[in-house]
Structures are given as C-alpha cells and as structure tokens.
Amino acid sequence: WSLPNAERYALQYADGRQTYITESNRRDIKNGSILRLTTSPDQEAERLYTGIQSKNVDVKTDSLKKLAGLSQDVTFAQEFISRNGLKQIYSIVEEGNDTGEMLAHTLKAFTELMEHDFVSWENLSTVFIKKIVSYVNMNAVDASIQQLSLSILENMVPTSRLLFELVKKEVTLDRLLTHLQSTNAELQLKAMALLIALLLSATDAERRDMMDYLREKNLRQFIHKNIIHSSEPLGDEMAHYLYVLQSVSLNLCEHRMKTSMDPYSQEQRDLLQSLRQTAFESESEVPAGSFSTERRRSLCAKEFRKLGFMNNSNPAEDLRRAPPGLLALDNMVYFSRNTPNAYSRFVLENSSREDKHECPFARSSIQLTLILCEILHIGEPCSETAQAFYPMFFGQDHFFEELFCICIQLVNKTWKEMRATQEDFDKVMQVVREQITRTLSLKPTSLELFKTRVNALNYSEILKLRQTERLHQEETLAVPVLELREKLKPELLELIRQQRLLHLCEGTLFRKISSRRRQDKLWYCRLSPNHKVLHYGDVEEGVQSPPIESLTEKIPVADMKMLLVGKECPHTKEKSSGKQNKDVLELAFSIVYDMEEYCLNFIAPTRYEFCLWTDGLNVLLGKEMTSERTQTDLDVLLSMELKLRLLDLENISIPDNPPPIPKPPSNLNFCYDFSHAEQ
C-alpha cells in the first residue's frame, strides 16, 4: 500500500488470539484468515510503556488493560520487556497505591509476560514478592487479585530453592487452608495449586512435616466432604491435584519400604517382640526365672514359627528384603495394636491347624505389603497428567495401614476357601492381588464399602470370572469360528473407522502443557462433517463443544502428510527431561502438514482420547489403525457378533474339520437334457 513510515505498522489477526504477523510466522497464515492493519509491536509497546506511567487514572487503567491482552503475543512481549517494561510493572506493584481493577490488569500482564520465559523468576525483588504475598494473606482483597497472586506464587515456587523457602515462610499453610475453604471455586483451585507446588518442591523431611501439619488441620476430611462430595462436579485440574496429594501422602511410606530391618536396633527388635507377646501373652506370663535361657529361646522360636516367620530363630532375617522392608513390620504392629481381637484370632486359628495347612501370618503380611505398594504405586514419581485418585483415600486416616488390616484378613479367608497348603502360598497371594485390583477398579467411595465388596468377591467368584474368561477364549479358538472371525473382521473394522471419524467430528478439548505448569491454556480441535478439514482454536475454560465457526484455524486433510507419536513428536523432543515426562510421552502426537514444514502438536487428555485421535487421523491418512484400543474394540465387537451367530449352536460341539461330503449316488443322471428338446 506504499504507506509512509511502513515500519510503524504491522498486520495482526483480527480474531482469536490477536497475534502479530512477523517474518517467522507469516507462513502460518491460512486462506480465509482475517488480518487487520495496526500499529507495529514496537510502537504499541512504546505507547503502553508511556501509558502505564501516566498520572491520569483512566489512561493508566486502559493501558494496563490493553497490556494484559497484548502480553500473550511473543513479539509484543519481547518489545515491551526490551524497554524495561517489567521494571514499570514491578514499581506499580511495589508502590502499592493502585488496587482493584488496575492491580488485577497489572498482575495479569505480569503473568503473561513471564510466561514467555525471557526473564528469570529469580530476578524478582523481595519487596515485589512480599507485596504479592500480602495480597494472598490479606482478607479485604478482591478474589480476582488473590487468584492471580496465588498463580504467580505457584509459578515461582518450582524455579529455585530460594523462592520456595521465601514463599513457604511468608504464606502459611493455615492461610492456604483458609483459601481452600472459599466458596469461590477458582480461588480454591489456585490455592490447591500452590499447596501442591510447595509439596512437590519440598525436601522429604519438609514434605513430611507439611503433611503432618495438614493432617492435624483435618485437610483430608475437608477435601472428602467439601470437594469430592460437593454438589459441583470435580474439574480435571482439581482431580489432578487430588491425585498428586494422594501420591505424595502414600510416598511418605517409601522410606520405610526401602529400609531393611536392622537386627541390632533395639527399637525394631522390641516391635518384633511386641507381635509375639500380643499373640501369646497368656503363655508368656510364666515368671522369667523358671526357664533356662535355652528353654526360653526355643519357646520364642516356636512362637515366631507359629506367627508365620520363615526364619523362626532370627525373625529379623525375614524383614531384610526391601521393599517392603520395615513397612511390613509397621503394618503387622498396627494390625496387632488396633485390631487385637482379629490379630489373635488369625494367629491362634492357624496355630491350631495342621502344620501344612496353616496360613503364615508374617510371610503373608510381608508379601501383601509388597503387593499393596505395587498396586498403589508407592515410590513412583507423580505423573504430570494423571487424575486417577481413590475417593476412599480421603475418607480415612492411616489409609495404607487400614487397607492392610482389611486385606490381611482377606488373605486368611481366601486361604481357607482355597484349602491351601504351604506350597500354594504364591497361588493364594495371586488370587488376593486379583481380588484387590478388581475391587479397586470399582472405585469404592469408602473403606467400609471396599471391605464389603472385596469380601463378597470370594475365591469361588474369582474362579467363576476366570472360568468365564477362559471359556470365552476356548469358544473363540475353534477352527470354523476362527474362519468366521476372519470373514467378519473387514465389516467390523469399517464400523470402528466410522466411529473414530465421528469422534473427531465431535471434537476434543486439549490442554497446552508449558514447561512450568499444566494449566490455563485450552484449545479445541474437531473434524468438519465432510471429513475434509481439521478446525482448531483456543477456547476458554468451561466451554464444552464450541461451534465449528468459532474455531479460527484450519488444516485441510489433503495437506496432512503424516502422524507422529511419542518420542518422535517435536514438542516432546524440546522438553524431554526424564521421568516426569513419561506420561506426557504416552499421550503426545503430532500432525505434519504442508510439505512437511509444519506440525500441529497435541497432548491428549487421556489414553482413551489418544487412541481415538491417532486412529481417526490414520484413517484420514489412509493408513491402518494401530492403537491398542482398536484391538480391544474389535475383540468386543467380534465376540458379540460371534455369540449372536452361534446362538443356535448352544451345547453343540463344533467339529474342527467340516464333515466329509458323501460320494454322488450311482443314479445321478436326473438332469434334464435341453439339447435334445430343442431338436
């Protein structure tokens, strides 16, 4: 357009995130995008830099509001920061004269500018941080300012040990608990986010102290009553924080689990002796003087053998294996002290059985502790995206020990039902593991409910379930049935393809996971009904399924070149920092499009969504569906179809080979000969 001073102007997207067009992103412009001519980022940055210093309150507020909006754009942020704009923001906060709307815009702009990682969090002055802390600690502050302040502190905590210590000292756990009790869901969420950030950044000793304090303050009961069982449905983010809280709490057992028993530790030997005394106290009450040392030692060894220790002369040897280490001893002692009747009944009942039929209490406890540690992932790092927590965990103090008490009685019950002998020990423990995992998968809301369900799932029920699964397998392995399966496969695969494409047409909400946190940025992607174009765009929290017109970006399916998953994706290569990203790797996929120059990167909310999307995209690319979900769906559909087809053959055994076709009869000449009739 030959504008004079062209460098003062720039193009910007007119809708969506109003990003500036630069040399680096100009190739991303899609056909049909609406652009507008506006002042260039450096001019805008200069204008707002001056505007936020204005003495006129209206000009200042307007400038801050515009700054909060524009700071999401990386080009603008760079220009603004290069003019030392952050210093201006610091001074607005540090002086503390502005409150309300103006302060909210300032904090929002600060958060957005820091998100670009141009400036280190460690550069912040103590005055600035204390000011932010004061907004969290004061009562008479607007909720939106408290939310932004909590969010800033949450981003600050993981960046350095110094900042962690400062925030931990200034924002007390009591204060965070007050915010957690707020009726404002957003404020509650941000307070929980900061609490989790503090727990994850703490050392083991600090974490233990913090968890002990939270236990004293009944945080668990509060979460169980007011968050899990509140009238509002639980959001994904809160579910993730509850999962982390559960994981951190259970991981407090890790130290004991990995510590072997020290036979020279008096405290640990006393615990072992207390197990023996609680079980056989009436027999042990004989005055010490009436027995020689040798006789007493053999009596102790006999009692330890009755308790089910393999090495009865030195039972500490049984606890040398770690895991489960001392955690098994803790569990046994907890069981003997908190449910002494059940404990005595277990031990005495088995003492009176024949040797080979007795259920060894100690050996079972050690193995059961190990099984529970594996099922509950004790000692494993927290996943960055998981949301699977057990509601009953928050419904019970001493959850791990109480769960053990229920399950050790289950071991004894299952042992009797199986009429097991010592050689069957591993089989019994396998059945118990199955009983526990099957019951936990039903997500019982309380330990009482877990106890009822796990006891109802007795050995005969497990056998029935196994039998059904085995029969189902055998039924489907006969040769004619396998041939029928192969014939049905193409039709059912087509059905799965249609379902995958329909799912893509409905669309899914994805999160953007930045290097520091997993929240805030949401975007939606869906396929057009004619399967020709993928539409996507940023959306606000709480939007369920935005109309296709509101998604401004698009990729024609014809331009899609290939699908990348896991480690091959560009966005996982950038930030592969070991263990914490294992779960992100399992959910990451990317579409390469436009002459293989560009990628659209996804991180699926769940493994299920990952499977459906990767399958759907493979269908669009004309490739095979490769996810594990395709196989399970195909198996389910095939088994249903086969059952329907074989209904009439109930109780008729299907031969492996078709019956022989009989020879034609000797008088097989009844065919009418047309040729003679024509003559």
Protein topology:
Elements: E1 9-13, E2 35-39, H1 41-51, H2 57-70, H3 74-82, H4 85-95, H5 100-115, H6 126-137, H7 143-156, H8 161-170, H9 173-180, H10 185-201, H11 204-216, H12 219-228, H13 236-250, H14 254-257, H15 266-284, H16 293-306, H17 325-338, H18 340-351, H19 361-375, H20 399-417, H21 425-440, H22 447-456, H23 459-475, H24 479-506, E3 508-511, E4 522-527, E5 533-539, E6 553-556, E7 560-565, H25 570-574, H26 582-587, E8 588-593, E9 598-603, H27 607-620, H28 628-645, H29 674-678
Antiparallel strand pairs: 1-2, 3-4, 4-5, 5-6, 7-8, 8-9
Helix pairs in contact: 1-2, 1-3, 2-5, 4-5, 4-6, 5-7, 6-7, 7-10, 9-10, 10-13, 15-17, 17-18, 17-19, 17-20, 19-20, 19-21, 20-21, 20-22, 24-27, 24-28
Protein name: ELMO3 protein
Pfam families: ELMO_ARM (PF11841), ELMO_CED12 (PF04727), PH_12 (PF16457)
GO molecular function, one term: SH3 domain binding
Structure, explained:
The structure is a single chain. With 679 residues, the protein is an alpha+beta fold. Helix content is 55%, strand content 7%. The protein has 29 helices and 9 strands. The protein has helices spanning 41-51, 57-70, 74-82, 85-95, 100-115, 126-137, 143-156, 161-170, 173-180, 185-201, 204-216, 219-228, 236-250, 254-257, 266-284, 293-306, 325-338, 340-351, 361-375, 399-417, 425-440, 447-456, 459-475, 479-506, 570-574, 582-587, 607-620, 628-645, 674-678, and strands at 9-13, 35-39, 508-511, 522-527, 533-539, 553-556, 560-565, 588-593, 598-603. The strands form 3 sheets. The protein has a 4-stranded antiparallel β-sheet. The longest helix is centred in the C-terminal third of the chain and has 28 residues, at 479-506. InterPro entries: ARM-like, ARM-type_fold, ELMO_ARM, ELMO_dom, ELMO_domain-containing, PH-like_dom_sf, PH_domain.
